[in-house]
Amino acid sequence: MSSVRRVYFYLVTLITLGILAGGVGVLLALIFDITIFNSTAIGQTNFHQQQLSMGIAMVIIGGPLWFLFWRSVQKHVRGNTGEIGATLRKFFLNFILVVSSITSVVAAQILLTGLLTRMPQSPNLSNSLATTIVALSVWVFHWRVSEKEGHPSPASLTLRRWYIYIISGYGLVLLTTSLVQLVDAAFKYLPFWGNSLVQGSFWSGTFQNNIIAIILGGLLWVFHWFQMSRTDVDSNLRQVYIYLLAIVVSSIIGLTALTMGLYQTLIWMLGVAGSTSGVYFQFLGWVIPTIIVTAAVWTYHQTVAREESAQVIERLLSSKRIHLYIMSFIGLATLTSGLIILFGTILNLIINSLNPAVAMESNWWQKQLSLSLSLLVVGAPLWLYYWNQVISLSSKGGVSEGRAKSRRIYLYVIIGASIIALAAVLVNIVYQILSGVLNTNFDLSVLEKSRWSIQALLVAVPLLIYHWQIARDDLQQGSEEVAEQKIVTALIDKSAMEIIRKIEQQLEIKIRIMEYTGSTDDTPILSTEDMLALNNKIQTSQTQTVMLIIHKKEILVLPYQIK
Questions:
Q1: Any bridge partners for residue 487, and if so which?
Q2: 363-367 — which CB contacts under 8 Å span 24+ positions?
Q3: Which distant-in-sequence residues (6+ apart) come within 8 Å of 324 by Cβ?
Q4: Number of H helices and number of E strands within the chain?
C-alpha cells in the first residue's frame, strides 16, 4: 500500500470510528437515562427524540463506513509484515489507545463520583457511563489487535513505547496529585483549627473524587508500568520517562513545596504572617504530603534506574552523570534565585535608608528575606551535595569524563545563560546611567531602576567565571578533541570475559582477546569509579595500541608499539 493510500484509509477509518463511537455513546446514554438513572422529566420528550434520531443516524452512517474501511485495511495487513509494522498503522493504533485510555478514566471518575455522592438523577451519570463503556470497548478492541500483530519494526516499538509511557505518566500524575489533595482535604478537618474548622460532611464530593482518582490512576499506572513495560529495560524512552518525568519533575515539585513551607514558617516566625491563629498552618496540609509523595516517587524511580543501569556499565555511568548534573542544575538554580532575592533585599534596604520617602510595601523586607533564606536553605546543600559528586566523578574519569555529553551540555547551558543575562542587565544599567546623565536627573532613582539588574549582575558574574574556568580546564585537557581510536588487546582467562564486554561497550571498540590458563581468582570486581579510571587510562595512553593484563585481581594498562 502506498503512503498516500495508507494515509487516506487510516484517516477515514479514524473519522468513521469517531462517528460510530459517538453514535453508540448517545444511544447508550439515552437508554441509561431512561432505564437506570430515571432522570426523565416532563418536557424532555423532544430532547430524547432528538438524541435517538442523532444516535441512530450516526450509527447507521458511521458503522458501515467504519466496517468497510477497517476491513479493507485488514485485508492489506493480513500476512504482510511490512504493512503490520508500518509507522502510520502503529501511530493509528497507539493514538486510539492513548485517547480511549484517558477518556475512559475521566468518564469513570465522573461516574463513580456521582454515584458516591448520591446524585443518581444527574444527566452526567448516563453520559459518563456510556462514555466509559464505549471508550473501554474501543481500547480493548484496538489493544488486542495491536498485541496480536506484535511490533516487527523499530518504529512500531517506538510508538508502542510512547503509548506506554504517556499513559504511565498520566496515571502516575493522577495518582500522586489526588493523594496530596486527599491528605490536604482531610487535614483541614482535623480538630486543630478551632472556629476555622471546615463546615460540612467529611465524606464530601471532593474527598470521594480524590479516592476514586487514586484508585483509577493507580490501576492505570500499575498496569502500564509493571505489566506492559516490564521487559522494556533497553529503551531510551524509558530513561526519558524515569529521569525527566519521575525524577526531575518530582524533584522540582518536592523542592518547591519544601521552599514554600520554609517561607511560610519564616514569615510566621518574623511576625508578618498576617494571621497568627492556628488556621495559618493549614498550608502544611499540602506541603508535607507533597514532600513525602515526591520523595517516594523520586526514591523509587532512582532505585529502578540504578538497578536497570547496572546491567550495562555504560548506561550506569551515563545515567549517573545525567542524574548528578540534573540535580546539580536544580540546586544551582534554587541557590542562584535565593542569592538574587537576598541581594535585592539588601539593595532595597540601602535605597530605603538613603531615601525614606520611597514607597515600600509593609513588612516587605521580612517577606523577601524569608523567601531568600528558604531558597538558600534548600538550594545550597542540594547543589553542594551533588556538585561534590560531580567533582569526584570528574577527577576519577579524567579526559573521558570531561568529554561526556551531559557535562558539556550542563556547562555550556550555564555559561550561555550567564552571558545572555549579563548582556541584558548591562544594557539596562548602561541605559539607566546614560538616561540619568542626559536628562540631568542622575540621582537615587537611577539606582532604584537598576536594582534588579545589579542584583542579577552580582550573581551572574561569579557564576560565569566559575563555570568558564571549569570549561577551560576541560578544554585544555582535550575534552573537545576527538578521541583517538585505541587498538586494545587483553590477556585474560575465561572468567574475565564479562569485564571485557563492559569495557567494549564503554569504549565502543572491539578488544582482541588472548586467553591464558590462569586462576579464576585473578578476576577483579570493578565499581563505577574503577571503570571510569580504567577508561581514562586507556584513552590517555601514550600509544594507539594498548595491552590489558588481568592478573592478581588487578588490571594493568600497558601502552606498547609494534616494531
A1: 545
A2: 363/270, 363/272, 366/267, 366/270, 366/271, 366/272, 367/267, 367/272
A3: 386, 389, 390, 393
A4: 17, 4
Q: What is the pTM assigned to this prediction?
A: 0.72
H-type alpha helices, 283-363: 284-309, 313-354
Q: Rounded distance, CA 337 to CA 325, Å?
A: 18
Cell numbers that stand for 175 in this block = 495518582
Cell numbers representing residue 467 in the block: 563555570
- Sequence-distant (≥ 6) Cβ neighbours of residue 416 within 8 angstroms: none
Q: What confidence category does residue 197 fall into, taking pLDDT thresholds of 50, 70 and 90?
A: very low
Distance separating alpha carbons of residues 142 and 140, to the nearest angstrom: 6
- Nearest CA-CA partner of 294 in 169, 180, 380: 180
For the chain, the C-alpha Rg in angstroms (whole number) is: 32
Residues ≥6 apart with Cβ < 8 Å to 504: 510, 511
State how far Cα 172 lies from the chain centre: 11
Burial class (CB in 10 A: 0-12, 13-18, 19+), 289: buried
Q: Which three cell numbers stand for residue 296?
A: 517516594
Could you write out the three-class secondary structure of 520-532?
Answer: HHHCCCCCHHHHH
Q: Are 409 and 322 in contact (CB under 8 A)?
A: no
* Pairwise CA distance, residues 406 & 404, whole Å: 6
Q: Band of the pLDDT at 415, cuts 50, 70, 90?
A: very high
